[in-house]
Each structure stands twice: as C-alpha cells, then as structure tokens.
C-alpha cells in the first residue's frame, strides 16, 4: 500500500483519541481510582457499565496473583460460568498455579493428591502431558526453586497466567482483550522490524488506524516527523504514566534508564510535554498532573531540564511540585552526587519496557519483585513521602552514570544549548611512562671466536666500536630511556576545565628500550627518554590528590607541577661467559641481581595518580547575593559578559567572568584600573549546609579582593537577605567578611525598592563596626595552608570546623560596607555611581597593598 508520507505531516492528534486510549488502558488493567480521577479531569463520559465488571475482574486477577488461584477459579465461574469450561488452557494454568503454591509451601502430599484429582484429567490430551510432566518434576527436587523448571514458580509465570485470565474475562464481556495502546505498540514494533529487514528498499507502509509515514532518502529510511501512531503512543503513554506515577518506584527508574540511550527525538518530546503546560487551562493532562503532582521531565542529567522545571514551578503552573536543587550538577555529563527527583514522566524506549513500566502500577495490582528479579537496581533507592491532600510524591534517589554521548552527537540541533562554559572541578588520572628496558649484551670478541662467519665478525666489531668507555676505562653501557613525566601547568590560553571533562585520562609515553640486538648508538647511550607530557590548565587551578593533600596552586601563568615522575630506564649488562658466570655470582653481593639479571634490566614502571583539579576563579571583584538579586544583570550591565539572566533562582550555576574597563576619569591611565568581576551563583540560607547550590562555589571568592553584595531592594525583607548572605559567608570563611565590600541595593526602579532606599541604606550601614577593613595579608604559604584547610573541610559541617573567631564574632563585629548604593542595573539607574564605588574599593585595596609591599621588601632585604 503506497501512501505519500507528507499526508501525515499535518495530522493533528485529537485529544479525544488519546482519552479513549488512556481510558481503555485503565479499564483493561482495573485502575479504578485512577480512572475516576482521569474521567473527572478530562471531562470524558464515565464508562459506568464497565465499573462494576471492572471491580469483579480486579478481585479475580488479584486472587490469581496473590497465590489464591482456586478462589480465582471460583470467582471466574461466578462471573462467566462457561469461560473456564471453554478455555481449558486457562483452567489448567490456574489449577497448576495452585499446585505450584502447594509445592512451594512444601505440602508435597497435598500437592500430589491435588494433581491426581484435578490435573491428571487434563493428561488425556497430549498437549497437556508435557506441561504436567514439568509440574510433577517440581516434586522431585528438594529445592524446587533451583530445579530446571523453576520458572513455573516465578512471579513472571503467575503474571502471565493472571494476564491471560484478565484478557479472557474481557473477551467474554465483549471488550477488546488487548488495549488500544498495546495494539499500537505492536504495530510500531512490526514497522520497526520490517524497516530493519527491508532496509535498502524504498518503503512506504500504512497500517491502521493512524498510519505511519516512512521515507526513503539517500539510502536511509527516515521516519518522518508526523509519525502519527508513534505520536499517539507517546502522548497516551505520557498521560498514562503520569496518571500512574505515584505507583511507580523502581520501575520508573527502569524506564528512565532505558530512556537514557533512546532516540534523540525524545528530547523534543520532553519539551513538547512541557509545552502542554503552556495552555494549562485547556489541558486535561496538566490538571491530572496537578492533582497527582507529577510533571514530565526527561532525565538526562542536564541542567537545562532542571531549568525548565524551575521555570514552570515559578510560573505557578505546578503548584504542588517541589524542586530539589540537588539535581544540578557541576559537570555536563555526570551526576556527581545523588540527586532527587520528585517528578518524572517519560516515554519508555521500547515497547517492552513500556509494558513493563505500565504494568507496575499499584493502583490495583502490586507485584513486588516483578522486575527486580531480572534487573538490578543496586544504585537506586527510593522512599515515599506521606501523601498530602493535593499531592502524592514519589521521591526517588538515584545516581545516573552517564548519558550516552550519541545523544549529543547525532543531532546537536535538537539538543538544548548547554549554557555554561565553566566547569570548575574535575578529576583526572595521569600515568607517567614506564622506563625503557635495558638489555643483556654480548661482549664482543669474548666468546665464540671459533665462529667463522664473516658477517658476524663484522657485526661484532661494529658493536665493539659503539661501546664507549669513561675516563677510567670502564665500559659505558646503554640505559633504557626514562619514562615520560607528567606535568600540569597554568596556561593563560585556557579558561575552563571543560576539556578535561571530556578527556580525563592522560598517559605519558614509555622510555625507549635498549636495542635487543646490541646497543644504541653512542649519542643515545642514555636510551630514548620519552617526552614530558604537559597538561595545560587555566590559571588559578589548584591541583590536589584525589581526596588528599594539596599539591600546588597554579596561580600564575607558567606555574607548573610535576605530578607523576616517569620510571627510570633499566640498565644494560654485559653477559659474562659461562665459565666466569658462576664465580661472578658468588662474588657479587648485589641482592637485586637474580639469575637472569632481569631485575636490573627492566625499566621501572611509571606512577599512576588520580588528581582533583579545582579552578578558583581569579577575579578582583566577587558578586554575591541571594538568587534573583540581579548579580548577572549587574555583570552584564558593566562588562561585556553575557551571563544567563532570568527571573528564577539559580539561573547562574557556575561563575561568570567579566572584565571591567579602567576608570575613564584617569585619562590615559584608564586601563591601569582594569579589573575582573566574577558573578557567582546565588546563596541561600543554609547554603553552608549544602542547600541550594551548596557552598562549594564560594571558594571562588578566595581570590577576590573586593566583594559586592547585591541585594534586591524590592524583596520582602532586603536587610534580612543581606544578613543571610553575610551569615553564610561567615560560616564558610569569616575572613571574607573582613574584605572591603560595597552593598548594591538593586531594583530601585520598582516602587517598592525606591521608596525604602533611604531606610534600607541606613539599616545596612548600621550593621558592622568602624574597624578599617584591610586587605587580607596572606603570604603564599598561608594561602596554600588555607586552601588545604578549606578544601579539607569541604565535606564537613561547619559546626565541625573549629574556628574561634566564627563562634565569638557577630556580624556586627565585622567592618561596615565601604558604601551602599541604590541602583537599577536593569534600567541603568545610578550605575555610574556604583562603578565609582567599586573602583574606589579596588583602589583602596591596591593602595593598602602597596603600602604593605615596602615593609615586606625591607624584611626580605634584611
Ligand atoms: N526591575 C528590575 N529587575 C531586575 C533588575 N536587575 C535584575 N532584574 C531582574 O531580576 C531577575 C533576576 O536577575 P539575575 O541577574 O538573573 O539574578 P541573579 O542574582 O544572577 O540570580 P541567580 O543567578 O539565580 O543567582 C531577572 O528577571 C532580571 O531581569 C533591576 O534593576 N530592576
Ligand atoms: Mg545569575
């Protein structure tokens, strides 16, 4: 049947189609409660006729599943008296389930009696004989679970029989025994299979009821955009899954797992599901989502999804959702820490995973262990929160290893842009090269002088000429080449550790071996040393052993550190003539020497180390403040940086840098006061305990000289916000509060901010003391020390950090701000004043620094 696929590009999927599909699925699987809420939300007419039947069916299937198959038989006979009579297969299966239950319960005599009475009559028909034999075999084993016919005791078999029973009853009541969605999936599978078989041929297929559009282009079969059936399936499945969401636990993860390597196009689907929410009023699914508390999100471990979520939550569309910021990761592909998702809805990758997923609803039929028999969830744990009236959350904690990179390469256009170029922490493994091997060499003309071959003689004399002697006359024997060292160095050309995320293993080359035939040429008597492997990192990178000590702080361009030393080359030995060897061995006391001299000859192996590289932004000014205060907007207003700006918290996930031009009032010297600004992610209360984005990014403040506190003057309680940020800084490192800082009261274009400006300024100026702030006087040694303590404590609670100052000092005991300026960075109001204050603070810093310099110089001179 030939059909022009373009016909399908325009087809719109009717909501009523989806509703019917969903409804039939719910009826089929006896999801009563869900059915009711769905009917209420979607405005579908309630299929009242089915409800009563459904309840009965539910009871029967439940009995079959729960190991009460005789009861199931009895109930089935009540509902449909001739069903089992006409369907002997099903009858046999149900009875055999009971038999299996008796065997499991070690009631062998009873089982035997039951089999004789109820099962053996089936043996008259040949097709049951084999089955009967299998069941009887169970009796022969002491541990039937370990017998070859163990599957008869498994949950899967029980499930299979229960499904069969369910379908039979449905068919008996003139309902389709397969749901619409199952049929659609079957069709999709058929089409996919035929695509696989017939690739290479032009292929156009149409299958009822919605049709598939496939196109043959340049030797490839392309599924055209309007792949209607698939769309229908996806939409219906999405809807179903959110209906059944609270029932999902580990199963959902299973589906998600599958998803992680699924087709790129589902990226789009994830978005389109989110798009439904745009017109929430007309979207019944969304209402369902609202009442159940679930939302579609594709779990790719990418921040962009988290962002979509936050956006939706903030716009009030998903009132019952909560967002755990733990989902945010510092690396583009890896979840670095366990994260939590409370919201999930996905389209499983394959029809079978879809069915498995959908089957796992516990609305009526809970089957613990159904999947876990076959799939490992070792990295998944889950816990359920108590249901609240409006929402039922299913919280899942999981760790996702790696999203397939194929997804990012196959169709980059379809991916959402990764907005941040900055990745500030990475673990790399480096290995230095092994040393080259030495060799055991023949001493020419020492043996076999009776060997008459002319060629060999020549060769020997050539070898002889290549031996060198030192001035004592001893032979200089060649040594295996030194293995390559690994050096990490600060390179001005690099601005992020991103590349190291893509390649996290570095191996230096091994040293050259001494030629096995003889020796190296005289120039190479030290063997072939392998080149040093030099790894460039951005200036400001701190190199640590993984979970260990600090090795170096590459703060200046060109700073470098040798992180792994190459192995030494093995030495070469002259083979002693047989008759002298014994004597030599007894004479020598060198314990390293063994019979074959291997120990000395083999090159040393290189070292392998895992290193943690942490980039600390090198900036003069650090912007701090609560999320949404306008830090990124400020950076964009006064520098050429283009950070992401949006009205939801945690838009900024990694620091953004911008360059501040020099002070124009200085004329020709304007460039001299050029400074770098770092816009940091928002801080929230409890950040030091890991809330929000945690506190790790605060390490970037380490190298700043001046802080700018950005406060949203139009917020509820700006002074409290200001105190919160200060408190968090204090908990992280009290020394930050001693740095010169400027407070920027932002958003004064809003009436709320403008009206309170004066009072806010006064209140803020009241917090703190008059002590003249001075720049922290850190020697490089101090700095290294403080880096190591800071990082060493990174995972500990601050309460564990003993710091007397922290305990004793109140916020009021730290210096006041140098200035408080009201601005609107968005509207450009008083930005120049603010710049003036920032520059003044920078100048002040520089002056005090210069004032310090001479004294240090004199100390050195003395
Ligand atoms: N009215 C007004 N809105 C502003 C002003 N400055 C920033 N905004 C808005 O405030 C919102 C947050 O701005 P961002 O610059 O992203 O805030 P942020 O502090 O970087 O936020 P995080 O990155 O989440 O920490 C955006 O919608 C801005 O448009 C301002 O001066 N006036
Ligand atoms: Mg920001």
UniProtKB/TrEMBL annotation:
Residues 53-110 form the CTLH domain. CDD domains: Obg (cd01898). Residues 457-466 have a biased composition (Basic residues). Residues 434-467, 775-810 are annotated as: Disordered. Residues 420-618 form the Obg domain. GO terms for molecular function: GTP binding; GTPase activity. It comes from the Eukaryota. Keywords: GTP-binding, Nucleotide-binding. This is GTP-binding protein OBGC2. The keyword rRNA-binding does not apply. One of its GO terms (cellular component) is mitochondrion. Residues 442-454 have a biased composition (Polar residues). One of its GO terms (biological process) is ribosome biogenesis. Residues 619-843 form the OBG-type G domain.
